[in-house]
Amino acid sequence: MSSSGLRSAPTTQEDLTGWVELDDYDASVPAGMSTILPSQPSRTTAPSAASGWRDVVVDRLADLLDLEKNWDGRGSEAVSFQDAIDVLEFLTLVMHQDTAAPAVGPLSSGGIGLAWAKDSLEVEAVFDHARDERALYITDGDEEHEAPIKNAALLFASVAAQLTID
What is the pLDDT of residues 106-146, one digit of tens each? Predict the structure, then answer.
C-alpha cells in the first residue's frame, strides 16, 4: 500500500487477477456501452462495502485480458495489458468509495472503454495505446466536454458526485 492508503496498481496479469476476491453477479450495461462490449456474456462482481467499484472493475478487466485476438470474429486485437493498468491507475486517482462502477468493455483495437450513464449525464473514457487515444468525454444535456486522460481528473471530479451508487 502506498502512503496515501491506496493500493498500488498490479504490474502483471497474475497480480491483476489476484488483486481482489471475486463474487459473481449479473450487471446491467448502460446503453452507450453496447458498441464496445463483446457479444458473449461476461462476468462481473458485486461490490462489497469495503471495496466499492474496485472489485467490479478488476474482475471485468481480468475477463477482458482473457480475450484472445479476434474475440469478436471481425479481426479485433487482444486487450492490452498496459491499457488495463492505465484504467486502474486513472480510476484509483479519480474514484470515490461511493462512485458507481463504470461499464467496462473492450475496443476492437485492443483498448478499453469505460462508461457511466445517469439521467442526462454520460461519461466515457477511452484507453487505447494502439490508436494513441486516452481521453475522457462527458455529455451532460447539451453540454459536451473532453480532456486527455492525463488532464482529466478535474473534469471527472466535476461530475463524480452525480455518479454515486444509489
Answer: 999 999 999 999 999 999 999 999 999 999 999 999 999 99
Backbone angles phi, psi at 64, to 5 degrees: -65, -35
Angle of helix 81-94 relative to helix 153-160, nearest 10 degrees, comes to 60
Task: State how far the Cα of 106 lies from the Cα of 165, in Å rounded to an integer.
Answer: 23
Q: What is the pTM of this model?
A: 0.72
Are 155 and 147 in contact by the 8 Å Cβ rule? The answer is yes
Residue identified by cell 469478436 is 72
CB atoms within 10 A of CB 144: 10
Cα pseudo-dihedral 158, 84, 104, 57, rounded to 10: -80
Name the helix (H) or strand (E) containing 63.
helix 53-65
For residue 81, what is the enclosing H or E element? helix 81-94
Measured between alpha carbons, how far apart are the two ends of the chain, in Å? 29
